[in-house]
Amino acid sequence: MKSRCIALDADGVLLDYNQAYAQAWQRAFGVRPEERDPSAYWAMDRWGVKRLEGEQLDRLRAAFDESFWSHLPAMAGAIGACQQLDTAGFELVCVSAIHPRYEAARLRNLQQLGFPIARVIATSHGDGSRSPKAAALERLMPLAFVDDYLPYLRGLPPRIHAALIHRQKRGSPNTGPELSLAHSHHEDLAAFATWWMKEGHEQYD
């Protein structure tokens, strides 16, 4: 039987890391930063924060703990999109570039929000010529993989449909010749789910 699996990135696709970043900053320093640019791709550009070093940087990093990774809010429309795909019989797996020690926290976060996801695969980060998620996706061999970070589409098996989410555009890495790595482009996960259900899956089922 063919796989009915769809692999989904977490931050920026399922979960709103940028909103959670402001919460982490508030936990570390007691003040929620002002929003500077809601169209910014990176959290540090979105919020009115400064680059830190030394003790202050250590304090911020300490806020990205088990509790932080257990309580990120959902991206708008993401839960409904996943429920739509799940109802249609697709198995959803989260493949996330997060440290493996937070894998269980990420799964707990998703399930508490109501995502129909029973498995998280943590791959850690990487910025090389091949996506740090590629090896996990080769083993999983889903029909499709959805991410919002173009470099993480590098080196994927060509049989996997690579879908790219284009969220906040300012400072986005989702530009240039490597856009050809994506087989389809979508505004958010809800747009992907609608397209996949109408026509996308027919190429892979």
Automatic annotation (TrEMBL):
KW RNA-binding (keyword) present: no
Tree of life domain: Bacteria
InterPro entries: HAD-like_sf (IPR036412), HAD_sf (IPR023214), PGP-like_dom2 (IPR023198)
GO molecular function: hydrolase activity
Protein keywords: Hydrolase
Keyword field contains Hydrolase: yes
Gene3D superfamilies (UniProt xref): HAD superfamily/HAD-like, Putative phosphatase, domain 2
Protein name from the UniProt record: HAD family hydrolase
